[in-house]
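User: Let's play a game. I give you a shape written as tokens, and you guess the letters that built it. Ready? Here's round one.
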């Protein structure tokens, strides 16, 4: 059964005056239900809580940005999920809410607990509706926006397709406001960067922009997930995308599938506890994708930071260029003691190593 993750941006379900566009929300739920009845499993990542709360409560005094976000999201999330619950209930279906934080993806145990919860929901025909817990995610470890969250969820849940719905038709080859700019219809998975064609800018009600979307999309595609960036305000967009119609959108074609552990590690750069510096020969072997190579202590020239066995560590060459991320088989102290030595067990095993 094909699995789809659908990210619904704030600009898709928010009117110009900042209120929730319940008509659009209802239409999107109708389409999710239609896809579900066609045999697709659907996970929704929905923004809109802060926008929903902003119109429900008026602070009695001036609040700082963090306090406003906590207040509005706490109130707005209840409103948002109640709307979704009612719309699904009208179709005889059930949705469930999952609120998460970025820290939940840094721990392998928390990561697997979230994955198991969503697997159980899907198995029981419950549609997961996921959002960042903005009421507590107020540190530097916030998601860039829900585009980043959708990429993490798509990787975690081994999705076949990630659909990112925005308020424009896709990635343009210039400024979308310029009539001569055209939508880039297809992107090969070998493309590593689209910043040269994407015009920087933030959405009106969300935190991110097309640069973030393109980065997340390319990351997901490199892990074997097809990514579609499309206009969520177009009528019937979801059902049309999966009915074979030629819809104007950007499709990033998937590369080779990556196993689950490596997907987790690939998205864990923010949680590394230290860094291992390797010599030129070790860096060259690790970067040679034609051979499966573990990092051996003999290639280690320096150990930076304090970490324990099983912690995530960054790997870099002696010039400081990133090589990869992996789970250390040693504590920092133990690895420093065997650095440069031959005939030692791997410092980072290939099965727990993601190469940049």
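Assistant: Ready! My guess for every position:
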């Amino acid at each position: 059964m094909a699995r789809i993750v659908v990210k619904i941006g704030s600009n898709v379900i928010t009117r110009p005056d900042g209120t929730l566009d319940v008509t659009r929300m209802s239409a999107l739920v109708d389409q999710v239900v239609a896809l579900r009845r066609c045999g697709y499993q659907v996970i929704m990542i929905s923004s809109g809580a802060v926008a929903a709360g902003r119109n429900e409560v008026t602070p009695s005094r001036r609040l700082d940005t963090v306090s406003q976000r906590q207040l509005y999201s706490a109130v707005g999330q209840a409103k948002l999920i109640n709307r979704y619950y009612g719309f699904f209930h009208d179709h005889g279906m059930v949705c469930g809410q999952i609120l998460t934080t970025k820290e939940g993806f840094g721990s392998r145990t928390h990561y697997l607990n979230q994955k198991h919860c969503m697997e159980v929901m899907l198995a029981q025909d419950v549609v997961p509706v996921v959002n960042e817990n903005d009421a507590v995610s107020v540190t530097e470890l916030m998601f860039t926006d829900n585009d980043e969250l959708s990429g993490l969820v798509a990787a975690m849940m081994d999705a076949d397709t990630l659909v990112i719905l925005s308020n424009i038709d896709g990635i343009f080859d210039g400024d979308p406001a310029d009539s001569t700019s055209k939508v880039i219809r297809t992107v090969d998975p070998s493309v590593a960067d689209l910043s040269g064609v994407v015009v920087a800018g933030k959405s009106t009600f969300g935190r991110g922009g097309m640069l973030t979307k393109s980065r997340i999309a390319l990351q997901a595609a490199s892990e074997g997930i097809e990514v579609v960036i499309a206009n969520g305000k177009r009528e019937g967009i979801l059902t049309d995308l999966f009915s074979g119609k030629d819809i104007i959108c950007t499709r990033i074609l998937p590369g080779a599938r990556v196993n689950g552990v490596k997907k987790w590690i690939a998205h864990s750069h923010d949680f590394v506890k230290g860094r291992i510096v390797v010599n030129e020969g070790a860096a060259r072997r690790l970067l040679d994708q034609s051979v499966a190579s573990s990092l051996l202590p003999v290639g280690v020239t320096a150990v930076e930071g304090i970490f324990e066995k099983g912690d995530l560590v960054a790997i870099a060459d002696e010039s400081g260029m990133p090589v990869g991320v992996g789970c250390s088989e040693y504590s920092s102290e133990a690895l420093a003691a065997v650095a440069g030595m031959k005939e030692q067990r791997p410092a980072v095993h290939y099965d727990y190593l993601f190469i940049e």
